[in-house]
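Chain A, query sequence.
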Amino acid sequence: MQGPVQPSPGRRAGDSKNASGQNTGELKDWQRNTWFGPVPDNSNPFEEPETAPELLEVRSSSVSDHTGEFWTDQQQTGYQYAAREIREQSDTRHRERTNKQGRRRISLRTVMIVFLLFTAAFAAVYFGVFRIREIRVTGNSLVSSADIIQFSGIHRGDSILRLSEEETGRRLTSAAITAARERNNYTYYTLEFRYIEKELPGTVTIAVREREACCFLTWCGIMYVMDKNGMVLYETENPYMKDSVVLVEVKGLDIRSGAHLGQTMVLSSAAQELIFRDLFLEMKVLGCTDQILEADLSNPSSILLTTRDHFTVSLGNSESLHAKLRALFLVRDKLKEMGTTSGSINVSNPETPFYSPSSPQ
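Chain A, predicted structure.
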């Protein structure tokens, strides 16, 4: 039985034996004077081992005193001091965040104030400055300006910026047709809307044109007065009415529908409808409608006219109507200079027109 184990003495640098007692040889210089033993039990933990007493001479005598902000500030421990620093940093960040939020609130408030001021200024301009103060009418002769303004639905005091040309034209046309039926006045059917012109801040001009009655036809005992597009402007059952108007009497039309006030005549033949519109358009351009007494359109390939000075005219088909009408009046004027007052003029070829005298009675 072994006895108690005796503690082995601590080894110092420079020993030449290892733990088993064997000699390991000489130690190197950097291994010498190195302490491997237990920590010396000093009463002052800041005192150096006895191997370095010179450090005590240069060390401050108050190194172990609890002095300074760390020890004396409200007798706080190191953990409390660190917490206070963290709290101060948090307070600083909170103040910065609060200041930033305050600046953001000020910016939003400024934006809202500017927006409200802009809205108020816009409303004042929109509802106060750009108000209709004057309404003008151009292009009318048969219908009064007061009636046209009433039909348009435009009133003084309305906003000129909200005025719609499309809506104005629709109201004017509809109101004019209604007034023509209620008042039995065909002149309202002649009214045609063109456009509106805005002159800021408060002047509006309504531009219209009036359809011109250029021809008439008799169908089912009723006389229908029409414009160059075939729109019915007036109707009457008075058989003597046609003797009191200077209009072209159209014959030979095959009517399918539309023989009503304010409507356009619809013909059974598309070719005949095209000839009608082209012929009266050219007459209007040349200003010769009042010189033609009759137009027979029963045969689209042989259009016949009768002038008011008793000449019978053959136009042929509907090609080159403008040139044919010009040739007609040139030949007629030359014949009248020669003293001829009747006969037939053929301008189916406008470059080579020819005249045939009337057969003796």
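Residues 215-356 form a domain with the Rossmann fold fold (CATH 3.40.50). Helices lie at 54-58, 69-72, 78-129, 145-152, 165-183, 270-286, 321-337.
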